[in-house]
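Allow me, if you will, to draw on your knowledge of protein folds for a short while. I have a record of one protein: its chain in single-letter code and its fold written as discrete structure tokens. I should value your view on which stretches of the chain appear to form regular backbone elements. Thank you for your consideration; the sequence and its tokens are set out here:
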Amino acid sequence: MSLSDIIFNRKIKLVRLADIIIYDLNIKRNDTLYVHSSFRKLKLSDSNPEDFTYLLKMLVGTQGTLLMPNFSDNQEIQKDRSFLAWGKMSVQISEDPLVDETGLEYNDLLERLSNLNAKIIGIGNPLNELPFVHASGFAQNKVKIFRRRGIPFFVLNTGTN
């Protein structure tokens, strides 16, 4: 372990994490937000996963939408359809199938998020661990990656704004 790991891998408070989400990741009320996070890697000193989820819900508000991966018993994400959704667009994102030009139905979470100008953020996990983005090449020019207190963060704006 290097000296920088010892210095920067301190615990972080939920209010500090809220500041990073609001000011560094530029998350606003009414956003459609997909959050890829590792609570274990966050090392929050004063809260639990429920507090973290509550914070995210309060940030996007009732007119926004929050999505998070849903892990199975073996901790693997089931392609791009295994997620939890809360908020205004949750039913549309999770239930309505997409239809291609030939009339065939398909499910593509990244396309759904892009159609809604969603933001995909990573807290505690690097971008290459996000199952439906890292292989697509889609993220390469729209992503901001940084570290705060030893924790990796990224934000990917899927839309045009």
User: Anything to note?
Assistant: The domain at 3-157 is CATH 3.40.50 (Rossmann fold).
